[in-house]
Amino acid sequence: MTAAIIDGKEFAAGLRVRVGEGVQAFKAETGSVPGLAVVLVGDDPASAVYVRNKGKQTVEAGMNSFEHKLPSDTAQADLIALVERLNADESVDGILVQLPLPGHLDELAVVSAINPDKDVDGLHVVSAGRLASGLPGLVSCTPLGCMMLIRDTLNGDLAGKEAVVIGRSILVGKPVAQLLLAANCTVTMAHSRTRDLADVVRRADIVVAAVGRPEMVKADWVKPGACVIDVGINRVPAADGKTRLVGDVDTAGVSAVAGSITPVPGGVGPMTIACLLHNTLQAARMRRGMPQDRRF
Ligand code: GUN
After folding, report:
1. Which of 93, 117, 119, 121 does the annotation list as catalytic?
2. Predicted confidence band at 294 (pLDDT cuts at 50, 70, 90)?
């Protein structure tokens, strides 16, 4: 078997178009435009690139982008005060504080200061609680992107499938497991202490690898025909002395066994910002008591 490549780049492009259409419909209905505020503290170059891309794609989708750049020595109280101003600002529907924050700042306290109804990153404990309780709320972008790709690949046929999630992070593993459970999969959460990990993974119809270990999932771990979602982004040394990007899955080997697989790069990665735009539109609708957009 040669796995079908799940093209996250193409899916994300389509999602951005659908969000753009949703924004136009929202504008026609409410006379207003959804707004996303992104807060960047310090001058980490990678974070600056992410924030720039988020702002650019927000504007391209027809929404307002508000960027707040603060110096790296910003005091905790000043950052929280900004978050509170954004909570109260009617033109802001979504708030994202770019992580990681400089070491002297308390990330949990900052994220906890965000109004959960504007938590487009889905990182607030209330967002996690809503997800676990099956209540409507905002779901973090990478897990949401994984689910959209899985649903699309399996034509929505998830009920009763065996899903194994490798990794139990708050950012990816736990919310992905909750989403798969809500879609009626039988979910196993595996992690660094799981015994006989290969045997556990081998029973999965759906594998989500989010463990942060380069090319850990091998061909003989995977059930023939399985749908394999690789969330890993690892830099490893390349033959030419530079580095190359690999996931948590040995893509070349696993592609010979799996039914479908996300590449790295070009799989889950491009979905993240597209899902952030999707969440911003959903937050704008939710805050006005409008139902979720049916397009998604
Ligand atoms: N830094 C890298 N990825 C993310 C993300 O998805 N959200 C936030 N807030 N910070 C990040």
Report:
1. 121
2. low
Q: What is the CATH number of domain 141-261?
A: 3.40.50.720
| Structure token pair of residue 113 | 């200061």
**295 band by pLDDT with thresholds 50, 70 and 90:** low
Phi, psi (degrees; rounded to nearest 5) at 195: -80, 145
Over range 44-69, report the average pLDDT.
Answer: 97
pLDDT at 293: 75
Query: What are 222's two structure tokens?
Result: 């995977």
pLDDT at residue 154, rounded to an integer: 98
pLDDT digits (tens, 9 = 90+) for 144-159: 999 999 999 999 999 9
Every domain of the chain with CATH number 3.40.50.10860 lies at 29-133
B/e letters for 53-62, b = 16+ CB within 10 Å, e = fewer, are ebbebbeebb
pLDDT band at 162, cuts 50/70/90?
A: very high
Q: Report phi then psi at 21, rounded to 5.
A: -65, -40
Q: Structure pTM?
A: 0.96
- Widest CA span of the chain, in angstroms? 56
Residue-wise DSSP of 181-223: HHTT-EEEEE-TT-TTHHHHHHT-SEEEE-S--TT-B-GGGS-
CATH class in words for 29-133: alpha beta
CATH code 3.40.50.720 region(s) in the chain? 141-261
218 is a catalytic site residue: no
- Judge if the beta carbon of residue 153 lies within 6 A of ligand 1: no
Catalytic residue among 57, 93, 98, 161: 98
Residue type, 37: A
For residue 97, which atom of ligand 1 is closest to its CA?
A: 9
